[in-house]
Every structure is written in structure tokens, then in C-alpha cells.
Design brief:
By secondary structure, the protein is of the alpha/beta class. It has 3 domains: 59 residues, Nucleic acid-binding proteins (OB fold (Dihydrolipoamide Acetyltransferase, E2P)); 152 residues, P-loop containing nucleotide triphosphate hydrolases (Rossmann fold, 3-Layer(aba) Sandwich), CATH 3.40.50; 64 residues, Ribonucleotide Reductase Protein R1, domain 1, CATH 1.10.40. It contains 8 helices and 13 strands. The protein has a 5-stranded mixed barrel with strand order 1-2-3-5-4. Strands 6-7 form a two-stranded antiparallel ribbon. Helix 2 crosses helix 7. It is globular, with a radius of gyration of 21 Å. About 5% of the residues have low confidence.
């Protein structure tokens, strides 16, 4: 049997990329797969070509991960695309994405798009947030889908991997993907009234790209409820900067326990107030001393 990758899943439509031939056929589940197995974009499958347009899927190989939204399997890297302006930056949404994707075993990186349109205030904000996330342990890139600035680094990032672009609507995910692959996808303008993007992408499609690489666009969204994916007591494990500190108690939640080195690091300015506030918001918690520490 031949090995293929599911590169498109929209409703009942399944597109598979036959790895040995580099062509896309329509996938038709057969046998046990038809009856028992849900198929996701990103699934590696075994089967055989029935004709020059159809591939019979006989087996779905084990997955290393599955994302719920978008429904996609075997993701190596998630490129979290954000903007400082148009639409305005939402650090809580980004922090939520980073936690969830680290939890499911993807490698999140951060891209700030539309750097070509920033005014002086925007450039200062870009510098500040870049420092915060780089200090926290994330790779951060500045790009412009319009001018092509910085996109060569994205090419290097995705080589040999299954990647997706994630983030809110209007930040330019589809435009970045089009610039990289030449694939024409529907793109949405940012509303002049709300400065938020319109939802334009439906389903999941992975596009062959570079040497053994596949990259996809995903539906835009404005909220992620972390506790739907991660247990409350485990959220602290996905704030990378917290892991540098050893608290008095190994199960410290970094809220009110004595001997909490994370809170001490916060007081010393080694952990950003913005990141710690996101942590509290995810847990739906509040600590009184935060006013004194962060103002």
C-alpha cells in the first residue's frame, strides 16, 4: 500500500497527497476506516490508487497529536500570527494559544504581521511585546505579508514540517500563506468600525510547500477558553518562564502559597505583569497583592 497525507477535509470531502508521486487525489475511506475511524487533515494514511482521481484509504496511521480547533492531526508547529495594530494586539488571546498548543505537543512560534503599517507608538509596542515573549522563551518574528519582509525566516521554520497559521481574523494569515505558496485563498479586510477581521476561512487545507513541508490556514477566532483543554492545576506548566523557578512546594500554584519563587520573580521584574495577569485570568483567580506589584 502507498502512504499519503490528508491535506484537505471539508465536510465529506477528503483530499490526499500521495507522497511518492506528489499529487492530490480524492480520498475514499474503505472497510474499517469507513465504519470506525474519523479522518482529520494531517492524518497519514495507507491505501492504493483506484484510478487517476481516486485514492482508497485502507488504514489511518497513529497520530502524535490532534488539535480540536481546527480539527487537524500531526501538527509539528503552530505559527501564531498577531498584529500590533489593525487589529489591535490581544495578548490574552496569544497567551491562551501558547498554553493550549504547548499542551497538545506542538511547537508554537510568534509572528507579528503588518509591521510595515506601524506608527511610532506601534513600533514601540512591537519592541515591548517582542521583548516580553522572547524573555519568556518564545521565538518571535516580525513580518509583512504585503512587502514580503521577514517571510524568508518563515520558509526556514516550516521546512519538512506540518504547520498551521493560527490567530484572530484580520491579522493576515491567509495573506501570509498566499505569499509563501502562491495559493489564492479568500482573505478578509479589517472592519474600519471595529478594527477586527471578518471570518473568511472554512475547513482545513494543507498546501504542499518547499521540501516535504505542508502549511495551512485556519479559521480565525477571538477567544480560547484554556480550561476547556488544560486542567486548572496544569496551566502553570505551560508558562515557560515559570519553569525556571523552584518554589518551596512542588505543587505550588503561584497564587498565595508561602515560598513561591514565581511571585518573587514577578516582584523583581523577571516575569512580566502582563503574562502573570493572563495566568490569573485563565484560572479565574485574583490576588490582592497584584495591585502593589503591578499597579
Amino acid at each position: 500500500m502507498e502512504k499519503a497525507l490528508v491535506v484537505e477535509r471539508v465536510a465529506q470531502l477528503i483530499g490526499v497527497y500521495v507522497l511518492s508521486e506528489g499529487k492530490v487525489l480524492r480520498g475514499i475511506p474503505r472497510g474499517k476506516v469507513l465504519k470506525k475511524t474519523r479522518i482529520y487533515a494531517g492524518d497519514y494514511v495507507l491505501g492504493k490508487e483506484i484510478d487517476d482521481q481516486t485514492f482508497a484509504i485502507e488504514e489511518v496511521l497513529d497520530r502524535k497529536n490532534v488539535l480540536v480547533r481546527p480539527p487537524i492531526a500531526n501538527v509539528d508547529r503552530v505559527i501564531c500570527v498577531m498584529t500590533i495594530q489593525k487589529p489591535d494586539f490581544d495578548n490574552y488571546l496569544l497567551d491562551s494559544l501558547l498554553v493550549v498548543y504547548d499542551h497538545v505537543g506542538c511547537k508554537p512560534v510568534i509572528i507579528f504581521n503588518k509591521v510595515d503599517i506601524l506608527d511610532e507608538e506601534g513600533r514601540q509596542e512591537l519592541k515591548r511585546w517582542t521583548s516580553i515573549y522572547a524573555d519568556a522563551g518564545y521565538d518571535v518574528f516580525h513580518v509583512s505579508a504585503k512587502t514580503g519582509e521577514g517571510l524568508d525566516k518563515v520558509v526556514q521554520l516550516v521546512e519538512g514540517e506540518i504547520c498551521i497559521l493560527a490567530g484572530p481574523s484580520g491579522v493576515g494569515k491567509s495573506s501570509i500563506l498566499k505569499h509563501l505558496t502562491g495559493e489564492e485563498l479568500r482573505t478578509g479586510e479589517v472592519s474600519e468600525k471595529t478594527h477586527r477581521g471578518r471570518h473568511t476561512t472554512t475547513g482545513v487545507k494543507l498546501i504542499p510547500f518547499g521540501s516535504g513541508s505542508f502549511i495551512g490556514d485556519t479559521p480565525g477566532f477571538s477567544r480560547v477558553e484554556v480550561l476547556q483543554f488544560v486542567r486548572k492545576r496544569d496551566v502553570k506548566n505551560y508558562f515557560r518562564e515559570f519553569l525556571r523557578y523552584e518554589c518551596k512546594y512542588p505543587d505550588c500554584t503561584h497564587l498565595r502559597e508561602p515560598g513561591c519563587e514565581v511571585r518573587e520573580a514577578l516582584k523583581r521584574g523577571e516575569i512580566s505583569c502582563e503574562r502573570y495577569k493572563s495566568y490569573l485570568k485563565m484560572l479565574k483567580e485574583y490576588i490582592e497583592e497584584l495591585k502593589e506589584i503591578c499597579g
